[in-house]
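quick one, two chains, predict together pls
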Amino acid sequence: MKQVDFINGKTRVFGIVGDPIEQVRSPEMVTWEFKQRQHNAVLIPIHIAQEDFDDVIPDIMRISNLDGMIFTIPFKVKALGLANTLGPQASLVRAINAIKRQSNGDWSGEIFDGVGCVEAFKRRGIALKDRKIQLIGLGGAGSAICVAVAHEHPGLMRLFDLNERSTEQMVKLVKEISPKTVVEVGISRCDGVDVLMNASPVGMLSDARLPLEVEKFSKDLVVFDAIVMPENTPLLTLAQNCGCEVVRGREMMLGQISRLVDYFLAT
Amino acid sequence: MKQVDFINGKTRVFGIVGDPIEQVRSPEMVTWEFKQRQHNAVLIPIHIAQEDFDDVIPDIMRISNLDGMIFTIPFKVKALGLANTLGPQASLVRAINAIKRQSNGDWSGEIFDGVGCVEAFKRRGIALKDRKIQLIGLGGAGSAICVAVAHEHPGLMRLFDLNERSTEQMVKLVKEISPKTVVEVGISRCDGVDVLMNASPVGMLSDARLPLEVEKFSKDLVVFDAIVMPENTPLLTLAQNCGCEVVRGREMMLGQISRLVDYFLAT
């Protein structure tokens, strides 16, 4: 029979929504997880122009065999409005990167950037407990990373974002989640910390800037960048030149996949 | 790497739209054709409730990496309004079962039921030229079959549909396409014909009726039914019990696949 074995009339559909879309890796990785779990589903790329998002996405959600969506740049903030209820991480962070249809027809939203980042460190065998961490950028992904890292009970978290309100909210959250963690706010520095994390957009695509003023890193510093494109941001290039261990945005994304599929398939 | 090789961020998306959807076979078969031609694309099932069609489909057409759709029951008639231009078969029949995005952004529509039916007969080695044919049902699929069969220049075409206007239009069309074909109109009969074709919905799903009054067929009669579900309609069951050769709706669908993919991929 001239047919493929990975899609048919009973296949459930998931999507990743972004603009641009060609760079995303979830279609091949999430679909692989579905197949591993013998769930008849595929995750397709869905390319939506920014100005079309508000009109088009609510109608895509009316496709009866579409069960969930992931949102990537530039839709992480807009997506929040699509969810009727929020999961535990999203409730704290007030941002989502995935929605799923619940059995009652409602849509719930959750964010996996934070758990993906912590998972990436675990897979590298790098503990965050009691470590001193500088986190730059507290937008959607940065807030999620902040919350997930706080749950690991680091010794120090030094937070920086241009938005003072976001920063204050995160300081409060970290203190709630991990009362023994020392929390500092102010200009980003890499002295006196063990791990430097960038979750700001500085260094993305053709942006040649560094997210902080620095010329050289101590080789004991671990440097993480949430940016996926390029794989080696200016920050990570400098860190590698200084002999530092680096953790990439792609590893954060890989760390999310199995948690995302857990979420999509939970009833 | 934990990933599948059949979908990624660059995959182009096609869909088949219907209600219900689980019975469709295009996803596995059209996707197989895409893969054979080394075109990075999948065809997914898209289940839309009837009342949602008018709102949702125009928005789905705004997904930038969605290049075409097939329409099945009950959307073949409604779909006509989505096309800015019509292909040669659709222009004659005034119905479509597929649309594709053109390079200028317009959507063109075409119907493949007719060519699929003729292809099914060709694959069986059954010529239609000079044969006497009774065709029952001149809706979307029936009209397309009528036009495609007329292009084969049968000796006689006896047409029946409850809608007199549809019937008159088809009589006119057959005479234009094949002036030497004798065209008759009236109550469906199987005496004096070589091929009996049903394109009416009578016999679909749990409908136990026959599309014409008959108790027995001559074993020389070839009987075709455009219905896909069930595979053996009451008409085909009777025909097989009488020793007739039968051609099934599924064969018509198979006959369409490669023509559909030609159409989708032509620039």
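Chain B touches chain A at residues 2-11, 13, 16, 21-25, 27-29, 31-33, 35-36, 42-49, 52, 55-56, 59-60, 62-65, 257 (CB under 8 Å).
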